[in-house]
Amino acid sequence: MDVDLLKIRDAGDYSIEVLKAAGMNLGDNMELIRPFNEIEEIEEKANDYWSLVIDIARRNQISEIKKSGQIMGQSKKDGWIAGQIIYICMQCAYIFFFEADICQIGMDQQTVNALERKFCHETKRKNKPIMLSHHVLPSLLNSDPSSVIYMDDDEATVEKKIGKAYCPSTVQGNPCLQYIKYIVFPWFNEVKVEREEKNGGEKDYTSCEELFADYEKGLLHPGDLKPALWKAINTILQPVREHFKNDKDANKLLMKVKSHLDSEKRGMSLKDLSSPLNHPNSTTEMCMEKKFNLVRSIGEECIEDGELRELLTNKPRPISYDGFEPSGRMHIAQGVMKTINVNKLTSAGCKVKIWIADWFALLNDKMGGDLEKIEVVGKYFIETWKGSAMNLDNVEFIWSSKEINRRAVDYWPLVLDIARRNTLSRITKCCKIMGRNDKNLTLAQIFYPCMQCADIFFLEADICQLGNDQRKVNVLAREYCKEIKKENKPVILSHHMLSGLLEGQSKMSKSNPNSAIFMEDEEAEIVTKINNAYCPPNVVEENPCLEYIKYIVFPWFNEFKVEGKEISGGERSYRNFPKLLNTPNDVLKLQDICYPVFMSTVDFVDDFQPILSFSCRWSAYNTSCAADSKDDFFSACRTPQSPGGLLQVLKRTARLIFKSLAGKA
Q1: Is 633 in the same domain as 660?
Q2: How far apart, in whole angstroms, are the C-alpha atoms of residue 522 and residue 598?
């Protein structure tokens, strides 16, 4: 059945009607058996259920989960989709969610039952659920796994199916005898065989062992066994047929289910997630070209430029999505670079939704998987941005756990739909977003990309403004749009990832404190880190010191001024003045930043010029070029120089930035 939750619910209601009609003892007012509506139950207790699922996911590697593939009819040879991996984790969670003492399900579910008991051991649960696994009936035809008898089959269909059923002369592997053993005998306590006298005459078998013995000896022929079987099955099914024939509501439900199955075609599984763009606002405060250039300046890559321009033209307040794991100390890229990027977006009229991914940090096993600690770190991040001049007028901080629980019925169907449409190999390609490789992945690392992809649509984001390391999952979101025929794809705006300060580090690492400057570092720590930083002479590419100047200093101060002796080239001022920063609404006003810098650094920067620039000495700079731009500055760095002077510049630059931040905290 195509993935339409309303159709699936119809199928669930139909199953309940069948069980009632078949004679299941439900007690008065169904007090003995309570059918649960999965969606409603999970929605009501979303935090309890999904916290369980996530905890199970992070404790199990994918290789362990795959062993349970049999529960979905998945063999080792089959290709996996991410939804099948998540399915197993969800089923494991049901046992604890429903507080079950006994798991009474088929033998094909044994591996997931073992997973449940393993989870009990790891979480130190005293009372493990008892596993009561019943036999699983085979199909009637070896060549057709779908050859089964359905509860609404008519008499002729049942007779035809059993007449064609595989029925060898042996007991082992004989589906007809299994139907006798597990259906007919438990229901009637006997099997009545009608045949001519020359073939042995009528005989009532009161035990399975007796019937099997006659069959193996050739005293009971398949031609006599099959009619006895189809008559018994038809007797069992007759009350069900009568119920659906005589009860109008039940009949209507049956017709709906059959209609769903007959018209089953792959199509959109969810309602169209697209929403028309708003009409353009003729009174926009910033001209379109400036808007586009300002927003576009954030990303090293944009997918696609044309879509971004159209979005900014047609929607006065686009929604930009950014997110972070509260996973420890905040480094300078998260603090300063994010502040710069957010301020550009809000000044261009965007609303910025910052997703505090506390559940994602739990999935990634950050802070020891302790949600209370993760929440503390999240609050610390927010306070740091408040103190670093982030313009919060159009910024909304959203805690993932709270928002997902509040709107569980919207969120989890999205996650599951994304998971079922993507192979496991496609999802594992996105695991770089968690800083993981594809070895020894836990199930949590499969949940994570599916959830992050869903976040984009859940938050109704028009722009995904994340780092280059998140590119693959953002592309996954665009692929999903194509799959569900969503017209307006999210624009991907991927910003540069600041490299680590040490040699060979393409990315800062929180696990190595010397590789990054953190937002609360003391002045002495900053000096030491920059003095020890990798800064090769004559090299611009992969030079972390130059990256700090390019991505931190210039965007923050808009100018880089060097004072030197005349013999070394004298005073040089390097500027980068994007036209968009000259607007009245410029959020990066130099006087707001430079005044506290001047007040806090006057003791060691005597020649600092407040408001317009900052000054520092670079005695090793000995070129006479009349450079006045950022690009000229980098070109000048390509000439043979000692890195010592540049390190001194960066040391003082770092002091200025962090003194400024300290003054505003």
Answers
A1: yes
A2: 18
Same domain? 576 vs 624: yes
Q: Measure the CA–CA gap between 650 and 639, rounded to whole angstroms.
A: 18
HSE, side-chain direction, 13 A CA sphere, residue 60: 33
Measured CA to CA, the distance from residue 413 to residue 269 in angstroms comes to: 9
Asked whether residue 657 is assigned to any structural domain, the reply reads yes
- Evaluate whether 237 touches 151 at the Cβ level (below 8 Å): yes
395 neighbors 345 (Cβ within 8 angstroms): no
* Model confidence, pTM: 0.67
Q: How far is CA 272 from the centre of its chain?
A: 20
pLDDT tens string 590-629: 222 222 222 222 222 222 222 222 222 222 222 233 334 4
pLDDT digits (tens, 9 = 90+) for 45-75: 877 888 888 888 888 887 777 777 655 555 5
With beta carbons less than 8 A apart as the criterion, state whether 307 and 552 touch. Answer: no
In this structure, the answer to whether residues 449 and 301 fall within a common structural domain is yes
Cis preceding-peptide flag for 190 (omega within 30 of 0): no
pLDDT over threshold 60, residue 265: no
Residue 127 lies in a domain: yes
**Range of weakest confidence among 39-53, 66-80, 434-448:** 66-80
Q: Are residues 308 and 374 in the same domain?
A: yes
For residues 464 and 492, is the Cβ–Cβ distance under 8 A? yes
Residue 69 located in a structural domain: yes
The two tokens of residue 26 are: 């439900």
What is residue 204's predicted lDDT score, i.e. its pLDDT?
A: 93
pLDDT (tens digit per residue) in 343-402:
999 999 999 999 998 888 887 778 877 888 888 888 888 888 887 788 888 999 999 989
564: domain CATH number is 1.10.240.10
Q: Kind of pairing, strands 191-193 and 203-205?
A: antiparallel
Give the domain range for residue 629: 513-664
664, HSE (Cβ side, Cα atoms, 13 Å): 23
Name the burial class of residue 663, with classes exposed (0-12), middle (13-18) and buried (19+) by CB atoms within 10 angstroms of its CB. middle
Residue 338 lies in a domain: yes
Same domain, 518 and 467: no
Q: What is the pLDDT of residue 587?
A: 30
pLDDT at 371: 81
| CATH number of the domain enclosing 367 | 3.40.50.620
**Shared domain check, 445 and 540:** no
- As a whole number of angstroms, the distance between CA 146 and CA 149 comes to 9
Measured between alpha carbons, how far is 580 from 293 in angstroms, rounded to an integer?
7
Structure tokens at 543: 């030079």
Please tell me whether residues 346 and 460 are part of one structural domain. yes
Tens digit of pLDDT for each residue in 524-576? 888 888 888 888 877 778 888 878 878 887 788 776 665 555 655 556 665 65
Class of residue 246 by CB neighbours under 10 A (exposed 0-12, middle 13-18, buried 19+)? exposed
Q: Is 202 left (phi over 0), alpha (psi -120 to 50) or beta?
A: beta
Domain count, the chain: 3
Same domain, 417 and 343: yes
Amino acid at 153: D
Instruction: Annotate 548-571 with three-state secondary structure.
Output: HHHHHHHHHHCEEEEECCHHHCCC
